[in-house]
Amino acid sequence: MIGAIVTGYVKRSIQVMDLSRVGDKSRYILGWDNTSKIKALEAELTQIEQQLDKVAARIRQIEKQQGQQRSRETWLQDFILQLLKGR
Q1: What's the confidence (pLDDT) of residue 4?
Q2: If DSSP states are collapsed to H, E and C, what string results for 59-83?
Q3: Which of 12-35 are b and which e, b meaning 16 or more Cβ less than 10 Å from the residue's Cβ?
Q4: Helix (H, G, I), strand (E, B) or coil at 8
Q5: 24 closest CA partner among 34, 35, 37
Q6: CB of 46 within 8 A of CB of 38?
Q7: How many helices (H) and strands (E) would you count in the chain?
Q8: Where does the pLDDT of residue 1 fall: very low under 50, low under 70, confident under 90, or very high at 90 and above?
Q9: Taking the model in full, what pTM does it have?
Q10: Distances (CA, A) of 33 to 23, 41, 58
Q11: pLDDT digits (tens, 9 = 90+) for 8-57
């Protein structure tokens, strides 16, 4: 029979979200000793803090450049106004 509809059948799929590395010690604890997990998390924290420091330094650099650019822009506007007044 072509075009028949089957009722009562639900197809379900299971999706596994296992995106962490197999050897990632920050994701598991063996037995009661969590020393390696703590060390792995501390190392990850140190790395993230270093990245954050780099980003903060770059933000400060960009803000400084923006301030310099605003100063140049203001000077140029004042210069053009003085030229126009002198006509």
Answers
A1: 54
A2: HHHHHHHHHHHHHHHHHHHHHHHHH
A3: eeeeeeeeeeeeebbeeeeeeeee
A4: coil
A5: 37
A6: no
A7: 1, 0
A8: very low
A9: 0.55
A10: 16, 14, 40
A11: 665 666 555 566 666 676 766 667 778 888 899 999 999 999 999 999 99
